[in-house]
Amino acid sequence: MKKKKSEEFDYETFEQEAISKLRSGKGLTGEGGALTGLVSRIIAAAFEGEISEHLSQKDAPPNRRNGHTRKTVRTGLGPIEVSPPRDRNGSFEPELLKKWERNLAPEIEAQILTLYSIGTSYLDISEHMRKMYGVNYSASFINSVTDRVLDEITTWKNRALEDVYAIIYLDAIHFKVRENRQVVTKAVYTVFGVNLEGERDVLGLFIGQSEGARHWGRVLENIRSRGVKDVFFFCVDGLNGFSQVIEDIFPSSIVQRCIVHMVRTSLKHVSWKDRKQVCANLRDVYTQDSPEAAWESLQRFKQKWEHRYPEIAQKWEENWAELSPFFDWADEIRRAIYTTNAVEALHRCLRKTTKTKGAFVTEQALEKQLYLTLMHNQRSWKRKVKDWSEMARVFRREFPDRFPTGVD
């Protein structure tokens, strides 16, 4: 069937208009851009094709065209005016653009989410969109776009986890949040796991008032309720009561306190002129081949430094039960469990994004930011553990009865 003259695309006219716009400095995209008119005409042609097909349906009630409506929609080339056709019966709804939709640019929303995930403020995102696409997006609109991930976050937080994990690292990071007209500090509890295939995953981010063993207990209850039945090793920092909480929920797990955290704590009040030597002597403690040899080295450290820093050896002795488990394991396992560096690297990624934020307006805003940052930077943390095959052999040898059926 031959198209009516009015429905045909006039390439000659479009070419003249596009050249004229380019010469006037309007550019290819954005409001009034040379290509924006082309998109408008393509959409108009699509609308006409859809309503023609709708009106030609067999066995449908008598119906006919009833003019057009007008609205502005967002596209990747900028805002454009469109005129969706109407029918007399009100039964026509374009597939291209639903009645209440005003967005034909999913790539714009994707860009907004990407910019937000790397810590860009709403104001800077709005300015970027204006320069790129010639559109002015308000902070409330950008917020509505980022809010669309809330359902995704809920699904992620409640997803089922694996039965057994080889290692779980526990640590917290702190952020400022506005609450009841005050700025308060919130602790974000991070659970970073390594499964029996050596694959890393963030099992959850939990926001609480302050870091404490009681809050960590709730976090561990959460991962257990989502399917985790056993964990070989928990690697933690020096929080009081941590071991007891873990033992209550996962009684078969081995708790290894982070040696790096312990060294940092030990150096807190050491004079700069003594730091190098104190570090070297402490290293001699935690690099021994057995807990007995390490204890003897600690006693030598104590004898050497107790006149100047008696609190260091005392602290190591008090926490020896949590500091010494890794001595019983092969080097492959030691390297993985003696420090929480894995989760600290993850936290550096989060801090890099949030360092320009003074305080988050709500706890929900903080949660959105952290989740989108995680998803945007998966390459940096969601990697298989190096030399996992060697570590897996040790795990299987030491925990033969705790491997689920079907795990190689």
Keywords:
408 residues, alpha/beta, five-stranded mixed β-sheet, two-stranded antiparallel ribbon, 48% helix, elongated
Describe this structure in words.
The protein is an alpha/beta fold and 408 residues long. Among the domains are: 1-103, no CATH class; 105-148. It contains 18 helices and nine strands. The strands form three sheets. A five-stranded mixed β-sheet has the order 7-6-5-8-9, sandwiched between helices. Strands 1-4 form a two-stranded antiparallel ribbon. The protein has a two-stranded antiparallel sheet with strand order 2-3. A hairpin with a 2-residue loop joins strand 2 and strand 3 (78-82). Helix 3 (106-117) packs across helix 16 (363-376), helix 10 (272-286) packs antiparallel against helix 11 and helix 11 (291-305) runs antiparallel to helix 12 (310-318). The longest helix is centred in the first third of the chain and has 20 residues, at 36-55. The protein is elongated, with a radius of gyration of 31 Å. Residues 1-7 have low confidence and may be disordered.
Question: What does the main sheet amount to?
Answer: 5 strands, mixed
| Number of helical elements | 18
Class from secondary-structure proportions: alpha/beta
Mean pLDDT: 82
With strands numbered from the N-terminus, the spatial order across the biggest sheet is 7-6-5-8-9
| H/E element sequence | HHEEEEHHHHEEEHEHEHHHHHHHHHH
Choose one word for the global shape: elongated
What proportion strand? 15-25%
Instruction: Please count the beta strands (DSSP E, at least 2 residues each).
Output: 9
Query: What is the alpha-carbon Rg in Å?
Result: 31 Å
What distance separates the N and C termini?
A: 64 Å
- Unreliable parts: 1-7
Level of helix content? 40-55%
